Amino acid sequence: MEIPCSGFIVYSSDSNLDGEHSHALYLTSWDGRPLHRHHFSGITSFDVGHEHRYAGTTEPAPSGVPHTHQYFTVTSFDDGHRHEIRGVTGPAIPLPEGGHYHKFHGVTTVSGEHPHAHKYRGDTSARGD
To answer: What are the sequence ranges of the domains in the chain?
Structure first.
């Protein structure tokens, strides 16, 4: 089965010791539907005497169909360390004026002098469809 998609490729001239280079593929549409992203941000739970801030942008997903987004970011550097945040949002939640947003939640990676993790939760920014 063929699915039409469009996008662009970015060439990176950064090379490693073997002289290799890389390309990044950025899709702009999938099966005729434009792709979109959401911004997300927040503050983790307060654990072991501190909290962390985080912000990022979700991976792209098609507009106008049921979908979720993968997300990844790294927290702020607090108390001498940081954590990774990653997961998949919940499904799109329609807004009365059009568009949608997603809920997300999870637990960070373990890090710190006293190894620990933080909980996080929030809503992505709204997108129009």
So the answer is: 36-123
